[in-house]
Amino acid sequence: MTHAPDTLAPGMPANENFDCEVAVVGGGPAGLTGAIYLARFRRSVHVLDAGSSRAVKIPRSHNMPGYPDGVVGKELVAAMRAQAERYGAQLETACVQRLQCLPDGEGGGFLLHFTEAGRAPLRCRRVLLATGVSDNEPAMPHLAQALREGALRYCPVCDGFEVIGSAVGVLTDRCAGVREALYLRHFSERVTLYFTQPVELSGEDRQRLDGAGVALQPAPVRALRLRGDGGVRIEHEAGTDDCDAIYGALGLRVHSRLATELGADHDDDGYLVTDARQRTSIEGLYAVGDVAQSLNQITVATGGAAIAAAALHRELGLPG
Ligand SMILES: Cc1cc2nc3c(=O)[nH]c(=O)nc-3n(C[C@H](O)[C@H](O)[C@H](O)COP(=O)(O)OP(=O)(O)OC[C@H]3O[C@@H](n4cnc5c(N)ncnc54)[C@H](O)[C@@H]3O)c2cc1C
Questions:
Q1: In a domain, 5, yes or no
Q2: Does the chain have fewer CB atoms within 10 Å around its N or its C terminus?
């Protein structure tokens, strides 16, 4: 059996024009997987991360293959960070404000500009963008605690299994919340749809909810409170309800601005459009994870990152 040293040899040095071969923007599961692969391909890779990965908020994920008892999001990310560093990836806490494409005449590649005043730009040959999305959060005291205890949830694909048979609320501000309520109906026969504001549902939506046995509370919600037993109290304009868990279906913010400012193609929701190798429409700019994929899942993020890293490695060729 061989034992790996704590830190293995870093990747090939970037040539004198570049600080690194690949800059990874975003240090969640997508960016870190890209960094692990690239570092093991002996590429010099620098991860710039603003430190707000959605994965860190996962109390315990039960759909990660290989973890039958689940895995705490924070621990998974910490392990990925250690793995990336072990192979020589450089990890830094930093927020990238702007990407600049350099013309071939100036040697090509990208300059990364930072929000931090006085921080010099970083120059790289390629960029792997893994900036993720953010959930629009409901107004609620003790929000972090509610997430930790599973009283507030965002992702029925992730954890619908964990609410089987429970009293589940879905809180939305839009007609699209109907879809999430119907999705959850597969897991529980006790689903109620709530609104933060008056929303005019179509007759067809009402029929679909009714047909599926999803209750509708049209009176806008005034407040959500964490109950002592782990559930949630919902105060709305027609009274008060209790449920075991409430799903926030208030939309997402897709962090694709760094790419769209360069003219990268995106869909109507803001997700970056990539080809089968995770290349965006901007040459040299790859995108992986939630920012490029509406099935917001860790396995999808890591799979895409492996594909992107392999393509980047091929594209970069021999050093020089
Ligand atoms: C409560 C909750 C539970 C979930 N449960 C599961 C589950 O059980 N199973 C599952 O598969 N998925 C789950 N998910 C979804 C999962 O967390 C995401 O799919 C996953 O984190 C996506 O990885 P990512 O690397 O694309 O994005 P993220 O993990 O969000 O990482 C993006 C990173 O980019 C950084 N960043 C953004 N902009 C910049 C910038 N300009 N400069 C520098 N850094 C920047 C952010 O700070 C962040 O650290 C859950 C999500 C939530 C919120």
A1: no
A2: N
Structural domain tally of the chain?
A: 2
Q: Is the CB of 298 under 6 A from ligand 1?
A: yes
Span from the CA of 207 to the centroid of ligand 1 (angstroms): 35
Same domain, 61 and 78: yes
Atom of ligand 1 nearest to the CA of 152: 1
- The CA distance from 314 to 244, in Å, is 50
- Buried b vs exposed e over 283-317: b needs ≥16 C-beta within 10 Å? ebbbbbbbbbbeebbbebbbbbbebbbebbbeebe
Q: What does the pLDDT look like over 49-88, one tens digit per residue?
A: 999 999 999 999 999 999 999 999 999 999 999 999 999 9
Q: Is 301 in the pocket of ligand 1 (CB under 6 A)?
A: yes
Return the CATH number at 86.
Answer: 3.50.50.60
Same domain, 126 and 256: yes
